[in-house]
Design brief:
three-stranded antiparallel sheet; alpha+beta; six-stranded antiparallel sheet; 4 helices; 9 strands
Length: 130
């Protein structure tokens, strides 16, 4: 079974979001997603200053066997990108909830989080896909 941290929120396309007290939201792909992709060889993230919209495409993850769109779980301005992934995209495989994060946004609306899945709902979603 994939690792599914309880403190995160999830969307059906297998991205997660962790919101800090200051309203900053960190986004990444789930352990399940990186397992499905296999060895990640490239991560494309949005540019700094761009507004990403919840549920819409915000980047791409490419592996040796496929490419997959990355969607943003939340709406906001991109304020940081994980530049380490440019040289070490395998961090997404090694630590998808830590060093393998993709980008950070200044959250536009905290209420948007209420429409996302918690760990229990996401666990059920992954089980249904398996």
């Amino acid at each position: 079974m994939s690792d599914i941290p309880a403190d995160l929120k999830y969307i059906e396309t297998h991205q997660w979001v962790r919101v800090s007290d200051d309203g900053t939201a960190t986004v990444g792909i789930t352990d399940f997603a990186q397992e499905q992709l296999g060895d990640v060889v490239y991560i494309g993230v949005p540019d700094l200053g761009v507004i990403v919209n919840g549920g819409e495409e915000a980047g791409v993850a490419e592996s040796v066997k496929s490419a997959s769109d990355v969607f943003s779980p939340v709406t906001g301005e991109v304020i940081a990108v994980n530049e380490a992934l440019e040289d070490e995209p395998e961090k997404v495989n090694e630590d998808p909830y830590g060093d393998g994060w993709l980008f950070k946004v200044k959250l536009e609306d905290q209420g948007e989080l209420e429409g996302l899945m918690d760990a229990t709902a996401y666990t059920e979603h992954v089980a249904a896909e398996g």
